[in-house]
């Protein structure tokens, strides 16, 4: 019981600090409150605060300077723009007036594939949590998902079974992210995917491959295969943007 309370408090403190950084309330170079100030604010031990600050430093979001304190990291001079938002599929389906349901097909731990650079970076030298699941609207399958989650980047994921909650929804609600990379392609469903989606092999599908980071730490990569008539991608632009 004590461990669970401590873990929940760790998550809360980290989420609140990340929120202040990502919102711009604490800009690059801003000095984060000293450890004793955070201990007083949250009513916790120095060890708890130290674990949170260490995790933020390892993710690249803050810099810890001996005797000076911790500061919001200054990002390298490059610009990135995410052309697509990361959707919560359950909420998106409900917003369209349909009844969403979800089925966990497989949950296992595995080593990253040596030839897959994204998986190697995601793993941090540890096993990855591999999840395969099916999304339904009004009882009919419309998307198949293969997802890998880094227990190094998201240690709290070890306590989630995902039997009733889709991993994407849980991540969006519980884990802050700083950037993402999308790759979009069109595929014909192979026999295995077609059987799960209840369509004929070769049926047109929209495939989204996404890698997501928190600071410099990759946290999840996912391949989502949508039936071609089930999902639209809309990107909005303004003059002067790329």
Primary descriptors:
30% strand, elongated, alpha+beta, disordered N terminus, 3-stranded antiparallel beta sheet, 29% helix, 7 helices
Protein described:
- The protein is an alpha+beta fold and 242 residues long.
- The protein is built from 7 helices and 9 strands; from the N terminus they run αβααββαβαββαβαββ.
- The strands form 2 sheets. It has a 6-stranded antiparallel β-sheet. It has a 3-stranded antiparallel β-sheet with strand order 1-3-2, covered by helices on one side.
- It is elongated.
- The N terminus is likely disordered.
How much helical structure, as a percent, in the residues?
25-40%
Shape: elongated
Q: If you compute it from the alpha carbons, what radius of gyration comes out, rounded to the nearest whole angstrom?
A: 20 Å
Number of alpha- plus pi-helical segments: 7
Bin the strand percentage: 25-35%
Ends apart, CA distance between termini: 50 Å
The number of E-state strands comes to 9
Summarize this entry quickly.
Helices cover 29% and strands 30% of the residues. The strands form two sheets. Strands 4-5-6-9-8-7 form a six-stranded antiparallel sheet. It has a three-stranded antiparallel sheet with strand order 1-3-2, covered by helices on one side. The protein is of the alpha+beta class and 242 residues long.
Question: How are the elements arranged and paired?
Answer:
Elements: H1 2-22, E1 31-32, H2 35-42, H3 46-58, E2 62-65, E3 69-72, H4 89-95, E4 100-110, H5 117-123, E5 128-137, E6 140-149, H6 167-174, E7 179-188, H7 191-197, E8 204-214, E9 217-227
Antiparallel strand pairs: 1-3, 2-3, 4-5, 5-6, 6-9, 7-8, 8-9
Helix pairs in contact: 1-3, 2-3
């Amino acid at each position: 019981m004590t461990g669970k309370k401590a873990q929940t408090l760790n998550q809360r403190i980290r989420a609140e600090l990340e929120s202040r950084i990502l919102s711009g309330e604490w800009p690059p170079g801003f000095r984060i409150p000293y450890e004793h100030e955070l201990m007083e604010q949250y009513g916790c031990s120095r060890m708890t605060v130290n674990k949170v600050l260490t995790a933020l430093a390892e993710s690249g979001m803050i810099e810890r300077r001996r005797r000076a304190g911790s500061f919001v990291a200054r990002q390298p001079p490059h610009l990135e723009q995410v052309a697509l938002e990361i959707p919560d599929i359950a909420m998106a389906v409900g917003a369209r007036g349909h009844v969403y349901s979800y089925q966990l097909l497989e949950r296992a731990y595995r080593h990253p594939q040596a030839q897959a650079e994204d998986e190697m970076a995601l793993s941090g030298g540890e096993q990855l949590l591999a999840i395969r699941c099916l999304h339904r609207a009004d009882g009919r399958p419309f998307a198949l998902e293969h997802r890998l989650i880094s227990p190094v980047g998201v240690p709290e994921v070890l306590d989630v079974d995902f039997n009733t909650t889709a991993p994407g929804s849980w991540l969006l609600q519980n884990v802050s992210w700083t950037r993402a990379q999308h790759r979009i392609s069109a595929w014909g469903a192979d026999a295995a995917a077609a059987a799960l989606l209840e369509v004929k092999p070769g049926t047109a599908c929209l495939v989204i491959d996404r890698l997501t980071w928190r600071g410099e730490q990759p946290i999840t990569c996912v391949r989502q295969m949508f039936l071609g008539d089930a999902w639209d991608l809309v990107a909005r632009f303004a003059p002067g943007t790329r």
